[in-house]
Fold this sequence. Notes:
- This protein has helices at residues 8-19, 57-66, 71-86, 93-104, and strands at residues 2-6, 27-31, 51-56.
- By secondary structure, the protein is an alpha+beta fold.
- The longest helix has 16 residues, at 71-86.
Amino acid sequence: xxxxxxxxxxxxxxxxxxxxxxxxxxxxxxxxxxxxxxxxxxxxxxxxxxxxxxxxxxxxxxxxxxxxxxxxxxxxxxxxxxxxxxxxxxxxxxxxxxxxxxxxxxxxxxxxxx
Length: 114
């Protein structure tokens, strides 16, 4: 996957262009076209391009400060969140539970309890 750490304006423009939302956001995920991880065993290579992630640096920094979190912890959460989108998860309890479990490995508390 590719990860781009960008300014807020760039991520807002991507959000408008690809999602039709003229709003800032903290992170965007762009799954690779045709990717279906349920058919992973059919791939002929161990290399699979998951897609792209764009992170809005200024927004993430502001959110972390406002929520009393370390920047790196908030960034890790958003990257895990974005990768889960790349592999096919949608927002919901299952995705949140997996995020919490993965973040715990880094010693990061449940991000949904502020």
